[in-house]
Write a structure and sequence with these properties.
mainly alpha; two-stranded antiparallel ribbon; 4 helices; 61% helix; globular
């Protein structure tokens, strides 16, 4: 991953962490399940998506991926490999930005 893409991913994950920080564990699990279920059909980065757990938010494909990643890491960490996003380093950097 190039430095520019890495920084974009860190920024995305930072924003998603902030977005999800006030949700309780049950809500995060629901967001994780709904976002990953939507991704199963394939998504386009420039597409627009909605998930029922976040009804007022229109999500780009990239934001949907970020929401799926963060919600899975926070609620089902052992399942992270199953979604095919390898953002461990970027997630660690994003966490530093929100501390």
């Amino acid at each position: 991953m190039g430095k520019e893409n890495e920084e974009d991913t860190i920024d995305l994950l930072t924003q998603v962490i902030k977005l999800l920080e006030d949700f309780d564990a049950g809500e995060l699990r629901l967001i994780a399940m709904q976002s990953t279920a939507l991704m199963q059909g394939g998504i386009r980065n420039e597409g627009i998506y909605r998930i029922p757990a976040l009804p007022d938010i229109m999500l780009s494909g990239n934001v949907l991926k970020g929401i799926a990643y963060v919600s899975i890491v926070q609620s089902f960490p052992s399942m992270i490999e199953k979604i095919g996003l390898h953002w461990e380093k970027e997630y660690a950097e994003a966490l530093k930005k929100v501390e």
